Amino acid sequence: MVSSRGAINRTSAARYDIDGLLAAIDGVPTVTDPVAVRRRSRDFFWYSPILNQQLAAKSADILVAPRDEADVVRVAAACARLRIPLTVRAGGTGNYGQAVPLEGGVLLDINSLNVVEWHKPGVIRVQAGAKMHDIDALTRPAGFELRMHPSTKRSATIGGFVAGGSGGIGSVTYGGLREPGNILAARIVTAEEEPRVIELRGDAAQKINRAYGTTGIITALEMPLAPAWPWIDLIITFDDFFEAMRFGYDVALADGVIKKLLTPMIWPIPANFPALKAHIRDGKSVVFAMIAQPSLETFKSILGDRGTITYEVAHDDSPNVVPLYEYTWNHTTLHWLKQDRTITYLQCLFPHERVIESVREMWAMFPDEVLPHTEFIRFGGRVTCSALPIVRYRNPERLNEIIALHEQHGVMIANPHVFTLEDGSRHKRADADQAGYKAEVDPYGLLNPGKMRSYVPVRT
Ligand SMILES: Cc1cc2nc3c(=O)[nH]c(=O)nc-3n(C[C@H](O)[C@H](O)[C@H](O)COP(=O)(O)OP(=O)(O)OC[C@H]3O[C@@H](n4cnc5c(N)ncnc54)[C@H](O)[C@@H]3O)c2cc1C
To answer: Can you give the pTM of this predicted structure?
Structure first.
């Protein structure tokens, strides 16, 4: 990182004491070139036509790249003293402007904090900026890997996943990050004149889970690991999408089958995967799956003659290969957006007691407008599915109508077209623990301001 004290945006220089900050953190790498800072102030909010309008012009005033936790403490102290907002940015793959600094200020690039502190069978202690792909590469030779990762595993960090993500590949077995035991501990730095470094263990670590960095700067995490199986990537084609759903559900329920991914997608979603053309059949829906090699025989007997396996390859996510999981979760939407920017998406959670009926009900309500792409997961110990359906976008009113109709029919929506925690959460409010904790660790409301919109700073 080049330290550059180039032109500082005049308005922000007047708004915040950036010169005072630079003096206070002398020696910590910074970038002040407005074009470079603006480029880094973005994430994947452009998936949403609504957020794209609201967030495109937002930018931090300065990017600061701490080299270690001591640097983080210095930056947090200076920001608190000078009342400068601070938004953490890791891989920048978030979807709802999570890392976009709404009020300018400091963009804290956490990527250099990437040291593995230790690992042993079943557990790793690692700095927050470590890439998940690097973590798996390190622990795999010992027979372990992260229990779950987003489809952005190759570019996202473990801290960004815990602060901004929910679950992904692996959640069909372990549930999401919110399930007890899926985050063992977190170390955070507070945003105070004299920052504290706090260890949150067990349930307390949920205070920083999916809080968009509003409840502390995470510097290290202790994460549970799973056995690293030899995974097989599979594509299975089906005449009928609901046959694909039923098969996926049968495998999800089969506790003896070791799996990491079960992704049904209706035709024509697979038509947007040109690189997989040889394994896709026109008009056919698909299930994309990752199955442990020893479970393959059982997997195939559950399939029977319901569908056809068109792809069966040992899993490989080395740098020059595009792994199958990069067609699932929110990569599915990305592949379609690459061909056509008129679509968008939703994030749904279907009721576990009537999963398939509920998916069918929603499909029947919006045929050809909301195209089902589902992901089998465990949620609170039950097998169900979440979904990231493709939505043929018309206007904000229609999008809100589609959301309301889902909710009226018992399908929970985590709205990806809003940037606040409250509006994006399934419960339409900030988590009570997180909101209360924020008062303790961020009294001036400097951490990613505007994202927890109900928070009123307890000190001014
Ligand atoms: C194509 C695509 C596919 C995706 N698939 C999935 C998926 O399968 N599952 C899923 O859950 N998400 C998914 N996402 C969303 C996103 O990629 C993940 O949540 C990812 O883990 C974010 O990590 P990141 O390092 O890029 O974090 P960033 O985008 O940089 O940050 C995310 C949020 O966390 C905060 N943050 C980051 N690091 C810290 C820290 N150290 N301390 C405090 N706050 C911090 C940021 O301020 C921001 O609010 C997807 C996104 C895209 C674009």
So the answer is: 0.96
